[in-house]
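Friendly challenge for the regulars: who can give me the structure tokens for this chain first? No prize, just bragging rights.
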Amino acid sequence: MNRKLITLCALFSMALIIGGCANRGMKNQHSGFLQDYEGLDDNPQFEGAMVRVMPGADFSKYENIIVAPVKVISNIPEADITPAQQKLFDQIAQYLTEGYVKNFRHNGTYNVVDVAGPDTMKFEVAISAVEVHFDDMQWYQFTPVTLGLTVAARTTYVDQSVRILGEARITDSESGKVLIRGMSLQEGEEVGTKADQLVFDDVKPALDTWLKRSNKTLVKMKQGLIKE
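First reply, four minutes later:
Bragging rights claimed.
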């Protein structure tokens, strides 16, 4: 084997190693909200989501639900968050939390309560922003970005390459047992702006699409159509 061929083989092997390491690194770019990301997988009952329904979970037997305040994961160091950005995060959290409560009260699924008890679930959601690469369904092909304009993220927002990533967990309010956990990319409404800062109106269309889609899933849960 001549020297040129040996060199080409070495370069090819290195490319495979680097490529494999890059993919593994992207797969681990989770926010940490769910704490446990093992077992998340495609599920035909959930469009565009990676979900883990726990064995024996029966959502139809529950009558009440606690809606925890939605958490906004900005990916901006707390010390660097500006008042305008904090206002945006507060608006997003309030809008989604109130939206979920409103949906539950109007779709006839679960009674919204504040205290844990029998037949009561707890619903927790976190929202962040990601830049999607290539095929949206390849979950390792996205990169977390700041939910707000920064020097590093500006081009991504101008190009409207940002989507909302939602993570959700539902537990039994008394035992704390996780019934379902998952993560989902919002589809159909990209987030972008050409202004100097990201404001609520830039994000609202994506949030509305997210709420509508979530509501359909929650109705199916109450109807007993979501199973392991």
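Confidence is low (pLDDT under 50) at residues 4-28. The chain has one domain: 31-222. Your move, everyone else.
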